[in-house]
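Async update (no meeting this week)

Hi team, since we skipped the sync, here's where things stand on the single-chain job. The sequence we agreed to prioritize is pasted below, unchanged from the tracker. I ran it this morning and attached the output directly underneath so nobody has to dig for it. Comments welcome in thread, and please keep replies under the output.
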Amino acid sequence: MTMNLIFALIVGVGMGWLLQRVGASNPRVILANLRLENLTIIKFMALTIAVGSIVSYLLSLFVPMHFDIKPLFVAGVLAGGLIFGIGFALSGYCPGTCVVGAAEGRKDALFVILGGIVGALVFTLLYSALEPVFVKQWNYGKVTLASAMHISPVLTAGIMAAVIIAAVKLLPTVTASGRKLGDSA
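Output:
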């Protein structure tokens, strides 16, 4: 158990360092990505998903792992996505990037973290009232792409990673006006 926590801490610090290096802790850089003016964060996150899925599933072939697949609650996912999107649009941060921003000393990121904690508290207090609508309705259980396609999770991870890496490779690094993505003028 202790080794797992140490490993998680090392991975978390490494991921935070990488997020900071690509500018994902800066709301202006995030906004440029959302405007498709600078695809650095989009490419980074896509590659992180690709590499993480391959490494996780390959490791699972040799090391006993338990992937805790969460049930698909469609109404809950839609409501959560809407809340997440509104929070992201208003703050310029997502949960990981606000922690990195706070570590850099960005005071606005502290308010985002506080808002997330308050939101989690409100959800916890209202869970029993929200459960019939957002959890029990349209509950499809623990669905994965691999189970839906009836193929190996490792093969699914490999195919998904290959598609993501190909998409990242095809994404432009220069805008239509000839300006290199990431340039400020």
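Quick observations from my side:
Helices lie at 2-21, 27-34, 40-60, 74-91, 95-103, 107-134, 145-149, 153-170.
The two ends are 50 Å apart (CA to CA).
Reply here if anything looks off.
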